[in-house]
Amino acid sequence: MKCLILLLCLAQLCGCRSVPYGPILGNREPACDDPETEQAALAAVDYINKHLPHGFKHILNQIDSVKVWPRRPTGEVFDLEIDTLETTCHVLDPTPLANCSVRHLKEHAVEGDCDFHVLKQDGEFSVLSAKCDSSPDSAEDVRKVCPDCPLLAPLNDSRVVHAVEAALAAFNAQKNGSYFQLVEISRAQLVPLSASVSVEFAVAATDCVAKEVVDPAKCNLLAEKPVLPQPQPDGAEAGPLITAPGSAGLALSPAGQPAASLVVGPRAVAAPPMPPPVYPAHYDLRHAFSGVASVESASGEAFHVGKTPKVAQPSIPAPEGPVPVVRPCPGRIRHFKI
């Protein structure tokens, strides 16, 4: 009898250990344009823009696919593939994304391609992992839309650097206050008809006075890197400014002081014809999330997306006629497709 009881206990113990521990395999596949799916995708885009160190904000263009997995102990994980488009708002610009314009095809648009795991828990969405890359539209496609439109130029092109230096010198010459130093070259396009370069770049104020600068190397940035000023008590915000073409502007705080950083551009500056070196022409999204995201659950378990086993059921006859579409994906295109 004691042996029998011992065998029963061992059997129960083995049975307990055979139960898989971790996320329950099985998923649901909502529509790509389902409101809940779009909420998850917008949370992903918000994550992109909060972690971009350079360049311009991106906006949602299309949801390509979605699967939703249950997650222990609570919540669900949205496995998303989305496409984004570059906007005209720099990452330093406090303008809400909804108010940012999308770069048109004729402006040599840039598209992002992203994979996300987004957790929905207690009605809130948060990103667990992110993987993105981005690429400009091809020169051939731009030429089809606009044969004479300027194309993106490598950011390290000597003509681009020359144009930025000339534009920044002219910008500082107009200022009676702080001397501004270059933070980054954000975008550049070669203008074929006028043999010039259109540039957009970010600058930051230094502790030097513009009219008194002798050696710019001795000037120190007022901030370690460009930052956005906090909202003022009266609700006004001071921050970077995107200026109109061919002009430069300065963001002022309510007290009348210049903001720590701003974006200047685009500025068109004549440049000598020189062959461009091979360098990137935009800030690739693939470099935006290095070491930022993790895929960990609240209990410390890693979340692994698995595949639901499909069991054949030969006894169930296949339905006659066309099979109805259960999951309409990819979703709608919000702007245009590259």
UniProtKB/TrEMBL annotation:
Cell compartments where the protein resides: Secreted
This protein's encoding gene: AHSG
Position of the signal peptide: 1-18
GO molecular function, one term: cysteine-type endopeptidase inhibitor activity
Residue span(s) of domain Cystatin fetuin-A-type: 27-133, 144-259
Chief location: secreted
Protein name, as recorded: Alpha-2-HS-glycoprotein
Pfam families from the UniProt entry: Cystatin
GO CC terms in record: blood microparticle; extracellular matrix
Gene3D superfamilies the record matches: 3.10.450.10
Top-rank taxon, per record: Eukaryota
Protein's UniProt keywords contain Ion transport: no
Keywords: Disulfide bond, Glycoprotein, Repeat, Secreted, Signal
